[in-house]
Amino acid sequence: YGKNTIKFLRLHREGKKHFVKEVEVCTHLRLTSAHEYLDGDNSLVIPTDTIKNIVLVLAKKNGIPTLEQFAIDICKHFMTTFCQVAYVKTYVQEVPWQRLHENGVPHVHSFICAPDGIRFCEAEQCRNGPLVVFAGIKDLKLMKTTQSGFEGFYKNEHTTLPERHDRILCGELFCKWSYGECKDFDFDCIWNNVRECILEAFAGPPDCGEYSPSYQKTVNSIQMLILSKVSQVQVIETILNNTFYNVVDMKNLGLTNDKEVLVPVETPYGSCACTLGRK
Fold first, then answer.
1. Which of 106, 131, 133, 159 sits most deeply, having the most CB atoms within 10 A of its CB?
2. Which residues contribute to the annotated binding site for 5-hydroxyisourate?
3. Is the pLDDT of residue 214 over 90?
4. Domain spanning 2-129: CATH 3.40.630.10
5. pTM for the structure as a whole
6. CA distance linking residue 97 with residue 94, whole number of Å
7. Which residues are annotated as a binding site?
């Protein structure tokens, strides 16, 4: 049991310069006994309102140096403070505030919300067990307008999809990875490196791109590049929810539409998922 969607903004001041972290936290506990379920005995139950207040107090006392460190702080607090807690899991996701720039100059106290992927993390621990940390990015919308196709697929009497050697590849990406044993990691640097790998593998070289024969191959290319470049990542789960576009037929309007006006296919949409890890 626990508390979901604990939302707050943590403001940190260094003179005139301000820093913000707005997060949403979900924290769940499992106790060493189940008396509250079986017998209605609540003597060991930590109220969910108390869980919420602890999260807020930790944000006040420790700040949020990184999402991962904040999740670790929450897990450690419940494990070291309450002997009746057998397991704790914390999820933290960040609102993507970025410092506002005016004529290239960073503003000291103004920010803009730029949703180019939402950062999140999870930390979980069993009593007498290791602390496990996951991180990830979700709602990252990506598109390339060429260098993508889908050909040579299995066909039978139910197949109506035509082969395409030049199509738009568009989708919403979810990536979640595990660190294994956590050490003194620079979580911000690692997260940024993973995000750069995602963009590089999806798009290819900036002057020419790279051909994608399928959404599945694109997912694999992303995972392989991350595992080759970011040594701290042990296992990575990737889901790509696809958005397809159809070319509008403008013959009745007396126009030739050479893939210049397209409409998205809202539903159903495709999806592919894969989990890849080191040996």
1. 133
2. 48-49, 150, 167, 216, 242
3. yes
4. no
5. 0.91
6. 8
7. 48-49, 150, 167, 216, 242
Cα separation of 195 and 236, whole Å? Answer: 13
Residues that constitute the known binding site for O2:
48, 242
Question: Cα(58)–Cα(225) distance, rounded to whole angstroms?
Answer: 36
| Assigned fold of 141-277 | Urate Oxidase (3.10.270)
**DSSP β-bridge partners for residue 74:** none
CB 27 within 8 A of CB 46: no
Specify binding-site residues for urate.
48-49, 150, 167, 216, 242
CA distance linking residue 79 with residue 83, whole number of Å: 7
Hey, where are the domains in the chain? 2-129, 141-277
| DSSP H or E run through 92 | strand 85-94
The tens digit of pLDDT for each residue in 40-73 reads: 999 999 999 999 999 999 999 999 999 999 999 9
- The CA distances from residue 84 to 40, 67, 78, in Å, are 16, 26, 9
